[in-house]
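Good morning C.,

I know you're traveling, so I'll keep this short. The sequence:
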Amino acid sequence: MPATATPAPEISLHREEWGELLLLPAAARLVVRWHGFANSRQLRQLLNRGLELYRQHAVRFPGLGWLADTRRFGAMLPADQQWVAADWNARAWAAGIRHLVYVQPETIFGQIALQQYARTTAATSALRISCAGSVAEACRLQ
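The tokens, ready to paste straight into the viewer:
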């Protein structure tokens, strides 16, 4: 009988109804896991808190990666896409994030939102964006 892989332990850093921030110490990843649709205030709050926590933990985990578990992510308003591309991406780069990996959303709305974000980021930023089919695959991509 084949051995089953035990998932790496997750450390909860921050939790809201619409998403949470986790640390995967064994993989050196900060994870933003979306639980569904987040309005503009919620989306910006969670991403901003994630950057604060990234800066704190990057000291302890050199090469810390950013992983977005967007399987349950919903639609993103155009104004939020613009904010992420113009504001958040620049601050993520300044914090040391060079590669963002996201897990493929399950809904068409999430897929469209992340595809548009990836295209905009590729055209306007040095930040690399990759898509993975699972959290385990995303950890291997960084």
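Safe travels,
E.
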